[in-house]
């Protein structure tokens, strides 16, 4: 019977009139794009949805930087009878607090580009959803099914563009299958207000153009932690590759994301629940040059998306406030301080030991369980640098094991200590950095305008005595007269800079940061 209904029913489309002011539809009303901001993306289907009919959405574009993801559900109200004033900025909580609307948020771990979300309602008023045709998840209960239901879709937060696919019908959920269906652990309704508040704060901050400023004044001293909460215990004492004696004077800074709890000694950070979003943690002091930091990861063992992010900043965490800490660390790159973020870690197992060390030449190297994995990034070592992490997805615990001050490292011309085993892994890291995708690259704070490039880091190429400004690192002939935007390195002549800019995935010869522009410098 369901197959016969599907055969005579036109696939659903987005309603052409009932939509938020930031929504743009394609010519066939099958694709909805939010053009601006993070909100005003509420849409509806153009016809009622049958019981057990799957509304299938492809996540075409996902842009990180906001909090929260797609909201979806059903309504008994006909969108054709709605005026533009009836459609608020948010589905949650604005619409769901009205009678006849039911919607919740898609967990951010599922908000991945090209994922296919399918959701449907059964005759008992239960809403299920699945990702990429995997096992269904019970999402909502208590939907009124005695009358027609239209699908409600809010293109919100990090979800930027969705496409409605052809319908399918779901199988009836038997008692045995229902008992095995997972319950959705999406954020409670009270936290939708928090996500909206955070995004409004982020949007307001974007209005003000910020110029990169690497010379920061720092407030001495660290505040005490007034939020001592018991957390998950440590998993093991030592692992292979960890020195027998570690200094334990470095801990997590009391300033942290609101979804993080610490043990009493602030050596272990844990997420509060499976759907934690704002999980930034910082070291309570700068990491010294040549000092190795060892941390141990722990996770739930569940197939969640997302993992660990690592970064370096010149910002003293004691100058930050909790409400300034976003869910996505990439948004920190718009701040005036120096920030570098790395996200392309491989899949980690529970109990893995990670090590991080900043070399005198600015290279940041890391290892896993005692094995060197090469260089992650290059940083400016002319200022104090704090370490920070975000704990997401499968990772739900991070433990600081301690630090050890290494002996001076001899850096080979290739940029890798010893010039041997680091080379292949460094190339792998650089290949990731060449990507133009913000979610897959190592990102560095950029200036707001090409007219004010950031100060060139101290690890710029050496200048021969025969040339005032140094030789171009590409042709080794002409004098350096061009700065790269956004990394700020000044290592090219204008001719080579223009040629390099035209290449596919062009990147800086020094730090491998993607080149957005090259700017010629004129000296008096």
TrEMBL record:
The keyword Methyltransferase does not apply. Its main location: cytoplasm. It catalyses: S-ubiquitinyl-[E2 ubiquitin-conjugating enzyme]-L-cysteine + [acceptor protein]-L-lysine = [E2 ubiquitin-conjugating enzyme]-L-cysteine + N(6)-ubiquitinyl-[acceptor protein]-L-lysine. Residues 450-464 have a biased composition (Pro residues). E3 ubiquitin-protein ligase involved in regulation of the Notch pathway through influencing the stability and activity of several Notch ligands. It comes from the Eukaryota. It is found in: Cytoplasm. Its EC number is 2.3.2.27. It comes from Tinamus guttatus. The keyword Phosphoprotein applies. GO terms for biological process: Notch signaling pathway; ubiquitin-dependent endocytosis. One of its GO terms (cellular component) is early endosome. InterPro entries: B30.2/SPRY_sf, Neuralized, NHR_dom, Znf_RING, Znf_RING/FYVE/PHD. Pathway: Protein modification; protein ubiquitination. Residues 472-512 form the RING-type domain. This is E3 ubiquitin-protein ligase NEURL1B. One of its GO terms (molecular function) is zinc ion binding. Pfam families: Neuralized, zf-C3HC4_3. Residues 11-167, 249-403 form the NHR domain. Residues 441-469 are annotated as: Disordered. Keywords: Cytoplasm, Metal-binding, Notch signaling pathway, Phosphoprotein, Repeat, Transferase, Ubl conjugation pathway, Zinc, Zinc-finger.
